Amino acid sequence: MRARAAILALILLGGAAALGPVSRACGCPEDPRTPEQALQAYDAVFLGQTLAITISPTGSASAPHQKEMVDRLDVTVKVLETWKGSPAPGDHVLVHTNPDTASCGYPFQVGKTSLVWATEASGVLTTSLCDRTKATGTIEAETDLRHLRDLAETWTWHRVQAAGFTVLLPDGFVADPLPFDLPEDVTRWQTIWWKPLDPARSGGWSNLGLKISYEYLGATASVAPLPKLESTVAGKAATMRHVALPNGRRVMSVYWVGPKSSSETLVLHCDVDPVHDVCTRVTDSIQW
Prior knowledge:
Layout lengths: L1 H18 L15 H5 L4 E13 L15 E13 L7 E6 L15 E9 L2 E3 L7 E2 L3 H14 L4 E5 L4 E5 L3 E2 L8 H4 L6 E3 L5 E6 L2 E10 L11 E3 L2 E9 L5 E8 L6 E8 L6 H7 L4
């Protein structure tokens, strides 16, 4: 009897091995970094409420070690607070993740609020179970939130008058009349639609190696269409560009196209500060 039971057990074990594992577990290493250190590694960090979740069958795995094609979750999130990246409070952004925790997908829930740490590629925000993204109320999220809010309050801001607008700047930034000097190969694409005004209207500010500058551009006679206005910044439709320079610096540029009666475009260039995210807060503060 015992022999028959042993044989039966071996048969069952062999069958299970042949079928393979039902699901693959997601193994995530611990993240020893402080929130300040982690800010430098992520492209977008914001607090957001999940509004909707849909399944996209054509997505590819979002976790770095997942390479095969899988279903993808497209998560619509309303941004409540932001510390890094282009999403501004009030924006609705799309975040991609894998479909379940076994494939390292982060378990978003409609109506719930999460502190989202996301990377960006080709304009797509992605997060996973192995990132710092956590639901509010958890120890990890509340600890990160406390650090991030304290960090944001280390700056003292004041409003500055510029040509045609006002903007909030942190104390320490002083007038710098020269526009942002970007390499020709970086700015060449903009000449399809814009050209510098003559006489020029430009200026800016700088502090401890960080630079913020603005310039007004005029439409060319080209028949090419204006760039797509991809988001809303400071309450006005805008186009945003992020550029990585050869020396390792990153620059964010925001273009606000004027009304149909105007042929001018205001562009603000800003050195990306990976710790304080000055760029996002400055651009969000512009008033016309």
